[in-house]
Amino acid sequence: MIIPDIIKALARKYREETISYRRNLHMYPELSFKEYETSRFIAEQLERSDILFQTGYVKTGIVGKIRAGNPGAGVVALRADMDALPIREENQVSYRSKNNGIMHACGHDLHMASLLGAAKILKELDGSFDGTVLLVFQPGEELIPGGASLMIEEGALNNPKPDLIIAQHVSPDLEAGKMGFRNGKYMASSDEIYMTIRGKGGHAALPDQTTDTVLITSRIIVELKEMITNKPYGGIPTILSFGRISAEGATNVIPGEVTVEGTFRTFDEEWRKEAHLLLSDKAKEIAAESGGICEFHIAPGYPFLINDEKVTRSARKYTSQYIGEENIVPLDLRMTSEDFAYFSQVFPATLFRLGTRNEKKNIISSLHSPTFDIDEDIIELSSGNLAWLTVSFLSEKQTR
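The structure assignment produced for this chain is given below.
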């Protein structure tokens, strides 16, 4: 029988090696769907651990397999995302990014290292538990359409299909060593909005000879925001935000074209579809009223993420056995999005949070910031807990 202390001893054994994985991955980050060297590094580590794997999913994705004891007993998948962000790192550390303008500022380096560490633990325990473990290294989490959806389309998890899939994500809002869980809806859907407002440009002092595209754009932004804020939609959390406006005019020039980019996020598919139409119709109506034209396009992004209630309850219980109940915290809804949501639409799934914050070490920066870092002391805990969750779920499968 495998107990937490056995896994904790193995996590300690592989602690420095797992930290070295994280540092190597952090130093050589790659952007979404371009994780070629990252993929090679992961494949090398799996090969050294004598773990079977298949490469080439969505070009850079990898699925490793550990078939232990009775491989038909159950299947648990563990997922780690691989891509980095177009951010220039400002941390002055030995493992600072060597790829200029690219940084692991969202913790995906830790996700991958923890999964590699868990894989080494599980491989050493081979024969002590029954079932199959899928090690899912997924590209392109940060970029629509998301690597998760493409891996599903390519059948990466069809042979065998997992009974459940687990992912963790770092959280600088939680103290290092804490882990957070939430049942049901957890992270929002996310859609990208692109608008182009066109009219007759010209001299700013001759308003009768121009179409004031900047004013039209201002009205559209304000009225769309008010519409989403004021429309009754059953209390469903919803956000409409605009982050980029480009009007290439001048102090005395009204531009003939203004472009706007934004995001729409919510937690209900029917409301999501309805809102898309409302936003488009309203923007076009406002532009037409002032003699302009609005081209409105929404690029559908990730669905909202649902944590399966049964899987999440069990994951919380097993994690509390590993790290102590006092280190478990509840999570609030998040308006951020995650393409792990695609997996949650197909398989019973849970995504939980791993605290990385350590104020004594000045590790306090937010995700997607140029000074983001993690307390590396949590890597041992992270890899061990993933291994413990795996054997616990497979054991649960056997006792049903």
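Interim note for the steering committee: Residues 37 and 126 are 29 Å apart (CA to CA). The chain has a mean pLDDT of 96.
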